[in-house]
Amino acid sequence: MFLLILPLMVLIFTYTSSPKSLWNSSTLSFLWLTPFSLFLLPSSGESFISSHIFIDLLSLVMIALTFLITALMFIASQKILFTHHEPKMFSITTYALAFILVEAYSTPHLLNFYILFEASLIPTLILILSWGLQPERLQAGTYLMFYMIVASLPLLFSILLMYSKNGHLELYLPFWAPPVSPSFFYLWWLITILPFLVKTPIYSAHLWLPKAHVEAPVAGSMILAGILLKLGSYGLFRVSFNFPSITILWSSPVLVLSLWGACIASMLCLRQTDIKALIAYSSISHMGLVTAGIMSQTQWGWAGALLLVIAHGLASSGLFALANTVYETSHSRNLMLLKGMMNLFPVMTVWWFILSASNLGAPPSINMLSEVILIAATISFSSLTMPIMALMIMLTTAYCLLLFSTTQYGPVSNYINPWNIHSQRHFSISAFHSIPIFLLFIKSEILTLWL
């Protein structure tokens, strides 16, 4: 309970302190809460259930990731503090978003989860519209709200139908459906998972994500890639438990669409010229693999999906932070203009290599372990997915190498100002993203105790 009310308590004191002290205390508080929440991890997969709180290992891992990414958001967004661009308002928005996400990951009721799922859009939209850099952020905000609201409205109808048929909306109890026609049951299941597929996002419902990433500030990109996309995967985990029979019966089309979309998104990565757009499309590719793992309805698929959710949350957030470093030194994100950064910032090149290799799935990262498990799970589901997985591996290797080699090698660009980089701050951000990726590889079994 302390974890849930702390962000709200801090909001009360937001306007009573100076922006600098508020910034430092916020960063330290969220950094401290990350290991504190991990210490609460159950040793044998137990759950804590009450009338208002439902905490299991899946919830605690997502809450810990929320705290860590929020702390790193403050470190990466110090330019807002230095330029006096409404730092207190930024802190309030970030605290509100963290509070909503922690509540969403710990609520036992599907209706409460739906409300918090929708409420998370408001602080995200404020971050994009208030601290975005280009006028196109208005269009990005419109895309974000349109996709999320249109996809989520059918879920409200589904929730009301669940309550009328079952008399409860508890996430930890399976729903019983009376005998209905198979087509109606399939439609019911589809409108229930639709908002989570859009949030993840699945290809063909993904157009909001590249626009939001490109126009968002670094904090918005980090929170989107690190936490908000995972809210969709978390919803798929919970709903798949509530509809076990229909998910097993009808998951094949969604699994095929996820893998096909992941391949197409990987191809699109190869033609991007904007660094943030490339990382955004790589997120679509990886989250498509997560969705396929969940839809496989196997223990291996779910274990690999959870591992990749954590791995991608850390790797993609770190890559967006590094992309922001490039932008601060050059005021450009164009891959054609940014070359030779290894000659100016060799230490940052090391972090580019580590995070790019992690995103690629190179050992000894948890990304590699999760992708191997997911590949095995999807192939065991159907051997026809083998060529799709092979193509996806090749494309992922290609765009990760493209991202690293294009920015680090070649003649030094005239657009880069080496005096604009704050190496200590960026070093800390990259280290906090990278170290958990390799530590979790050593102790990855603790993340699968909830299965």
Automatic annotation (TrEMBL):
Gene Ontology MF annotations: NADH dehydrogenase (ubiquinone) activity; NADH dehydrogenase activity; ubiquinone binding
InterPro entries registered for this protein in UniProt: NADH4_N, NADH_UbQ_OxRdtase, ND/Mrp_TM
Subcellular location(s) per record: Mitochondrion membrane
UniProt signal peptide: 1-18
EC number: 7.1.1.2
Gene name as annotated: nad4
GO BP term, pick one: electron transport coupled proton transport
A GO term from the CC aspect: mitochondrial membrane
Family per record: Belongs to the complex I subunit 4 family.
Catalysed conversion reaction: a ubiquinone + NADH + 5 H(+)(in) = a ubiquinol + NAD(+) + 4 H(+)(out)
Coarse class of the protein's main subcellular location: mitochondrion
The protein, known as: NADH-ubiquinone oxidoreductase chain 4
Role, per record: Core subunit of the mitochondrial membrane respiratory chain NADH dehydrogenase (Complex I) which catalyzes electron transfer from NADH through the respiratory chain, using ubiquinone as an electron acceptor. Essential for the catalytic activity and assembly of complex I.
Biological source species: Polydora hoplura
NADH:quinone oxidoreductase/Mrp antiporter transmembrane domain boundaries: 109-389
